[in-house]
Amino acid sequence: xxxxxxxxxxxxxxxxxxxxxxxxxxxxxxxxxxxxxxxxxxxxxxxxxxxxxxxxxxxxxxxxxxxxxxxxxxxxxxxxxxxxxxxxxxxxxxxxxxxxxxxxxxxxxxxxxxxxxxxxxxxxxxxxxxxxxxxxxxxxxxxxxxxxxxxxxxxxxxxxxxxxxxxxxxxxxxxxxxxxxxxxxxxxxxxxxxxxxxxxxxxxxxxxxxxxxxxxxxxxxxxxxxxxxxxxx
Length: 233
Known about the structure:
7 strands, 233 residues, 32% helix, L,D-transpeptidase catalytic domain-like, alpha+beta
């Protein structure tokens, strides 16, 4: 398939929420391996996450050994965060994850890069260091998508644990609790999950937002660039 047509088909399907394995993903051994590890995840979202990380690597950022994929098109009551060990091709975590309180109820539909919006942000993030703060053990992230998540540090969008992220609340309220925009996880897994992702790993947050899909610089690399970068895996 022509690379331009292939990419257009992938983005169009993602924009409509379609769940299919794209031709690009089928031709990528790593994408196929990750989908086998996480059959409940949308294979096209996994492919897009790998495309974004390869694009970042092609721009000069170092490759990572771990990748977290968040699919905000799924309800908050479903595990929608996957953490992969790319080096050993293992699934480390499949977890519930909160979205911002102004992003929506059970379903997130609104996303922002604005400070004080209390909405989640889309795109590719690279993790930094950890700290102990108001929410306990937390992980800083820098946003790599200008216009969509590059205010992550200013907004203090971090991975942290939260008591409101739990299955019991989901059953009682029909949704888990919401954050101020951070991808909060269960307190029981926060330490090992953060330790798996700290210091230069990638986090990819997805929603079928047409503007982000068409404008993100991490989804604009040519197939040749991403193919070269993927060799690092």
